[in-house]
Amino acid sequence: MMNNIPQIKLGIVAVSRDCFPESLSVNRRRALVDAYSRKYNKKDIYECPICIVESELHMEEALADIKKKGCNALCVYLGNFGPEISETMLAQKFDGPVMFCAAAEENIGVLSSDRGDAYCGMLNASYNLKLRNVKAYIPEYPVGDSAYCAKLLHEFIPIARALVGLRSLKIISFGPRPLNFMACNAPIKQLYNLGVEIEENSELDLFESFNKHKNDERIEAVVADMMKELGEGNKKPEILHKLAQYELTLLDWIEAHRGSKAYVAIAGKCWPAFQTQFGFVPCYVNSRLTGRGIPVSCEVDIYGCLSEYIGSCISGDAVTLLDINNTVPYDMFQESIENKYPYQFTDTFMGFHCGNTCSKLICNPTMKYQKIMARSLPVEVTNGTLEGDIKPGDITFYRLQSTADNHLYAYVAEGEILPVETHSFGSIGVFAIQEMGRFYRHVLIEKGFPHHGAVAFGHFGKALFEVYKYIGVEEIGYNQPKEMKYPKENPFE
Asked: Would you call 88 helix, strand, or coil by DSSP?
């Protein structure tokens, strides 16, 4: 159950220029709400019936009404040209994400007497939003009939969910990044700019709390739930009590430390001393919490868990965090991919992490040990990974990141996990993204992104791109088609 992301109630407020018939906005608002209710979940929206906003006083009435009804997102709907002052003032005063869209003319018959001119009004609205320095989501094409605008509202819901979630998010981290792991180190200033709170703790604090949970009476119930989840994949039953103890430690820490924030994500420590002191690796527990909408990133990757959280809000489902890890062996490409799928060799790579991916996203999930750590440590202290090939299907690969000099960058690319056996270990899959080779060189390398990428299971690039724009990301990279050169891509190849 995803109980760590907000529920959106979208207030719809229609506006009207006082020299246009008010009935245009009234009737078009009703048509919009009817169209949404027929196709989508009516509980997601609230039609503000108090008035059609024509003035500042109307604006205050509408604002009070949608606040009273618990709306945490707003659609300003131009049923006609619209009053540029009061409509943008409404967006300015509303404490939450706002979108603007507008009504198209229905038919030839309206052109002689009931023409709305909202196509023109959107220009004035956008200009006034900029005058007031107000952020608003304006769709790529924001004008349409009731069915089209209902679709725009539906597309805004996950965007609003991410924006509301960010403003109410606390990231809890444990321990500094491991030695030789500067890749996941980034300034936290941009977190505060986004409204995200950060609480940084020592892993010694976590260890103390873990030890206090040793005889917690809830452990047996958590172990039973783990056994049920793992089924035949429960190959390390001797470690489950410690893992349950650790899971309860994290959940109790969240409740004791969320403070004024509604939602929490965790940037956890998992090596080099974690295994020898705790006696296990935390991957499986990380996967279980992430499956509930509480992302737990590996290796104290603060912007990694932030990225995961955004993806959970947009997709409404579990995500994961993987290393952009290794090339697909060429013999595997020839045997299993070439001439079977529309990808060239450089479009493919393998995404991997030790065992942090939710069980429902893995084929035959199995509890194992961390093979890389076990090269230099006793196997018994490396138990706790959840391993298996990640299920094939559509994915979105993405990340939000502060640069070392405090600029906010991001990337997003849609692709798929192929139904190709990995012949490897960990939580792992064979990924394919069109023009990945160029994207790897001219976005990931060129812009200095770390090796961790968040993965959402489905195609969510459009919503992610809009969230990035809304929060003010300076540069948004994506996998550009072959005919579109990157700024520093050599044109003479």
From this structure: helix
Question: What is the chain's alpha carbon radius of gyration, rounded to the nearest angstrom?
Answer: 25
| Spatial separation of the C-alpha atoms in residues 389 and 422, rounded to whole Å | 7
Q: How far apart are CA 70 and CA 48, in angstroms?
A: 12
Give exposure, 17-53, as e/b (b: 16+ Cβ within 10 Å).
Answer: beebbbebbbbbbebbbebbeeeeeeebbbbbeebbb
Q: Provide the whole-model pTM.
A: 0.94
Cα end-to-end span (Å), the chain: 50
Report the alpha-carbon distance of residue 395 to residue 432 in Å, rounded: 9
The span from the CA of 388 to the CA of 233, in Å, is: 10
Max CA-CA distance within the chain? 83
For residue 137, the SS3 value is strand
Number of H helices, E strands in the chain: 15, 18
- pLDDT < 70 positions in the chain: 1, 19, 51, 180-183
Cα 414 to Cα 455: distance, rounded to the nearest angstrom: 10
| Helix, strand or coil, per DSSP, at residue 74 | strand
The pLDDT tens digits of the residues spanning 276-306 come to: 999 999 999 999 999 999 999 988 899 999 9
Angstrom distance (rounded) from CA 413 to CA 433: 7
As a whole-number percent, the residues of the chain with pLDDT over 70 amount to 98
Show Cβ contacts of residue 197 under 8 Å, excluding neighbours closer than 6 positions.
169, 170, 171, 191, 259, 260, 261
Q: What tokens appear for 112 in the block?
A: 């002689």
Query: Residue 55: its pLDDT value, please?
Result: 82
Residue 390 · residue 427 · CB < 8 Å: yes
pLDDT of 253 reads: 96
Instruction: Name the packing angle between helices 240-257 and 283-291 (round to 10°).
Output: 50
Res 493: pLDDT: 72
Query: Which H helix or E strand runs over 10?
Result: strand 10-15
Neighbour-count burial of 375, counting CB atoms closer than 10 A to its CB (0-12 exposed, 13-18 middle, 19+ buried) = exposed
Query: Domains (ranges, CATH) in the chain?
Result: 10-166 (3.40.50.10940), 168-478 (3.20.14)
> What pLDDT, on a 0 to 100 scale, did the predictor assign at position 224?
97
d(CA 321, CA 351): 9
SS3 label, residue 199? strand
Residue showing tokens 């690039």? 461
Smallest Cα–Cα separation from 309: which of 147, 195, 443?
195
* DSSP structural state of residue 182: G
- Residue 51 is predicted with a pLDDT of 64
